[in-house]
Design a protein that fits this description.
Number of strands: 2
Helix content: 40-55%
Structural class: mainly alpha
Strand order of the largest sheet: 1-2
Number of helices: 8
Radius of gyration: 30 Å
Distance between the termini: 126 Å
Order of helices and strands: HHEEHHHHHH
Largest sheet: 2 strands, antiparallel
């Protein structure tokens, strides 16, 4: 056989991509279709997504042991580290590689979202009314202009808020200083009345 020719490609190409959940209606298939791989490097993310795409992903029946903290806290199949350990060490949850960036980060929790919202509102309260309304109109304009307002415009809004805060924010000052000045003025006027 002639080795220079090599192996030919597949004879027939598929017209449609394979769908593992085409005929499946069980809740596991729906869960896998909506699943997102988090805290993994690009290579491990690609491997796990392939398993999900072709129906080879097997979920954990009980939590696995974390390699770093030795606790049963790993909730995702094929992962070897729990989420707190991954956040501390900044290593891939599957292979432990610390050189590459994570592809998908976990979504923020409700408490984190509430904290960010409270910080944003406190920053807004520090602005004068005119600048606050200007910023709110700017935010509305950005939401109307974009298709995905949640992700695209966050940086622009943060930059604008930071700029306004630096320029126009009200600093915390004591009102006693004004009271002292008014009392000085009133004392002087009382003295003038006595002199007459």
């Amino acid at each position: 056989m002639n080795k220079s020719r090599g192996k030919p490609g597949q004879k027939y190409q598929n017209r449609e991509a394979y769908k593992f959940d085409k005929w499946r209606t069980d809740p596991k298939a729906k869960m896998l279709a909506a699943m997102q791989v988090i805290n993994c490097c690009p290579k491990c993310t690609q491997v796990i997504e392939w398993k999900i795409q072709f129906g080879k992903y097997k979920t954990l029946t009980r939590p696995a042991t974390c390699l770093d903290c030795k606790e049963k806290a790993v909730k995702y199949a094929y992962h070897t580290r729990c989420i707190p350990c991954v956040e501390k060490s900044k290593r891939c949850s599957k292979c432990g590689d610390s050189q590459s960036e994570f592809v998908n980060l976990p979504p923020p929790s409700d408490s984190e979202l509430a904290k960010k919202d409270a910080e944003f509102k406190s920053e807004l309260k520090r602005l004068p009314e005119r600048k606050r309304r200007t910023l709110l109109r700017y935010m509305e304009k950005l939401k109307l202009d974009s298709e995905n307002p949640e992700n695209e415009n966050q940086e622009a809004i943060k930059d604008k808020l930071q700029e306004y805060t630096e320029k126009y924010a009200k600093n915390d000052f004591e009102f006693d200083e004004f009271d002292d000045e008014r009392s000085d003025v009133s004392d002087d006027s009382d003295n003038e009345d006595l002199d007459d």
